[in-house]
Amino acid sequence: MVRRAGIFFAEAITPIEKSHRTAREASLHSDQLNQRLRERRADLTVSNRQLKLEIVQRKAWRNPP
Q1: What is the pLDDT of residues 11-59, one digit of tens each?
Q2: Backbone phi, then psi, for 64, in 5-degree steps?
Q3: S-S: 19 plus which of 1, 14, 34, 50, CB 3.0-4.6 Å?
């Protein structure tokens, strides 16, 4: 009983995110989603820059100086 109590109290002071499988899996999934979002944001930034450049070029083509 003392051993079980020791295990219980050791888990009680450990953050839930580190001691429970479901919480660890959720944290890992969240980290993976955040990584994908960072990658997509970087891709969108590149696309937006390219679109802005194309807009400037088309405006210049339509309205030569």
Answers
A1: 777 776 666 788 788 889 999 999 999 999 999 999 999 999 999 999 9
A2: -65, 150
A3: 14
